[in-house]
Amino acid sequence: MDNNELLAGTDPAFTVNGALRQFGPGPANTTALEWLRSNGLTGAKEGCAEGECGACAILTAQPDRHGGTAWTAVNSCLIPMASLDGQELFTAEGLGTPAAPHPVQEAMAAAGGSQCGYCTPGFVCSMAAEYYRPERGTLEQAPADDGGRPQPWSGPNGFDLHALSGNLCRCTGYRPIRDAAYSLGSPAPGKPEGDPLAARRGSQAPPLRSTLLERGDGVFVRAATLGQAAVLLAANPGAVLVAGSTDWGVEVNLRARRAPLAIAIDRVPELDAIEVRANEIEIGAAVPLSEIERVLGDRVPLLRQLIPQFASRLIRNRATLGGNLGTASPIGDGPPALLALETRLTLASAAGERTLPLADFFTGYRTTVRQADELVKSVLIPLPLAGLTAFHKVAKRRFDDISSVAAAFALTLDGGIVTRARIGLGGVAATPLRARATENSLAGRPWTRETAEAAAAVLATEGTPMDDHRASARYRSAMLANALLKLHADSTSEQEARP
Ligand SMILES: Cc1cc2nc3c(=O)[nH]c(=O)nc-3n(C[C@H](O)[C@H](O)[C@H](O)COP(=O)(O)OP(=O)(O)OC[C@H]3O[C@@H](n4cnc5c(N)ncnc54)[C@H](O)[C@@H]3O)c2cc1C
Ligand code: FES
Ligand code: FES
Asked: Is the CB of 49 within 6 Å of ligand 2?
C-alpha cells in the first residue's frame, strides 16, 4: 500500500525550548539526541546511546490524564525525533541561563552537584521532572513501605530519588546531587508567569499528529488510530512497530538496524487506555510503565512490586508492556508477572482481534504466535487477584539492570491451604514460562515451611537454565528455590507481625 493513502507527508515540527523548529534534512531514523545536537543544542550529551546513563535526558510534555500536562523526562538517545512531531520539549539549556538559572540548576550549583558537568544536563532534566510532579508532597505524604515507614528514597520535600535512577555520575558522587534534590522547594503556584513550565502544566499536552517522513534510510509513519496502524502493518509485513522505543533506540544506535518502515504506535488511543472492570483490568499495550504505576497504584500488588524494579524511571517513562512482549525476550520482566497473573492478550490486525492466554503466546526463543500483520493491543488481568503475590528479580544491580532470573508468584490461600498457585519465570528457558510442576506441588497443601521447602526443590528443577555472563545455571536454579522460601518467610513474618 502507498503510505500516502493514509497520511500526508509534511516536515515534522516541534516546539523546542519554546521555539518552533522544523525537522529539516536528516534520516528518518534520526534520534532526538542526534537531532538536538546537530541543531546546536549540545546540552544533552551522549554517554552510552543505549539508555543506561541518562546524560541525554530531556523533558517532554505528556498528557497527565486529567486534562493537563506532565513534564516527563526521557532518554533522547532512544527516541526517534520524528515521533515527537507536534510535541513540546525542553533541554537543560532551555530551563535557565547562567544569569537566570532554573531552581534545579541553582540547587545543583549550591550543593556542589556538578564537577566535570557531563552528566549534569541529564540530571537537571530528570530533577526538573520530579520538581514539577504535582503529586510530590512532603516526607509525611511520601509512599510508605510495608512497615508503614516512609520510603528511604523520599526526601524531606517528598522528592522521590527514583526520579534519578536512570542518571549516572562518574565524578561528583551522588550525595551532593541528592542534597540538591532534597533542597528543592515547589514551583510557586501564584506566579505562573515567572515559570512557563509550571504554568504549562495547567493546559492540555499537545495532541498527536499523523506523521509521514520518507527518507533514504526508511520511512517513519505515525498512524493516528489502531485501524490505521493495522492497515499499514498488513500492507508492510516487514514494518517495525515503535511504542516506547527503548528497544528500538538500542537496535538503531548499537546494531545499526534500519527498518524500511517504522510505525509509531505510542499514544494511539486504543493502545493507551487502562480500564478497570468488575472481572478484569485491561491495560493498553502502549501505556508507559510509569503511567501504569500511577494509574493503578496498589490495585495490582504484583505490578506494584515489578515496575520499580524495571530499568530506571527514564526508561519506564517510555517502555510499554506491548514492547516488552513484542521483543519476546526470555529475560523480560513483564512476562513472569503477567504469567503469574494469568493474563490474556488481545492481538489486533486489519482482519479483527483475537484473545489468547499469555501462556500460549511464546513458542520458542524470541518467537511467538503473533502473525506479521498483528500487534498486541492490550493485556487483560483477570479479577479477583490472588491474595499472596511477590515478584523476585535477581540482577547484578538492584536497579536499572536486566534480570539474571525472575520469578513471580500468585498464591490463593484458604484457611492456610494453598488452593491455587500460579508462578511465572524468566531467565531459565528459551521463553518465559509457567512453573507448572511447582504449581501442582503447592496446590492443596498447607502453606507451611515444609510445603515451601518441598516446592522450592521442585522449582529449582524447572526450565533449562543456562550458564552465561549474567549467572551460572546452578545459581539461577538456586535463586528460584530461594525466592519461594523468601515468599514463605515474608508471608509468615507478616502474619506474626500483625496484632
Ligand atoms: C537501559 C535499559 C534498561 C532496560 N531494563 C529492562 C528491565 O529491567 N526489564 C525488562 O524487561 N526490559 C528492560 N529493557 C528493555 C525494554 O525497555 C523493554 O523491553 C520495554 O518493555 C520495551 O518497550 P518499548 O515500548 O520501549 O518497546 P519498543 O522499543 O517500542 O519495541 C520493542 C519491540 O516490540 C515491538 N512492539 C512494540 N509494541 C508492540 C505491540 N503493541 N505489539 C507487537 N509488537 C510490539 C516492536 O516492533 C519492537 O520489535 C531495558 C532497556 C534499556 C534500554
Ligand atoms: S546517552 Fe546514555 S542514556 Fe542516552
Ligand atoms: S559531574 Fe562528571 S560525570 Fe557527573
From this structure: yes
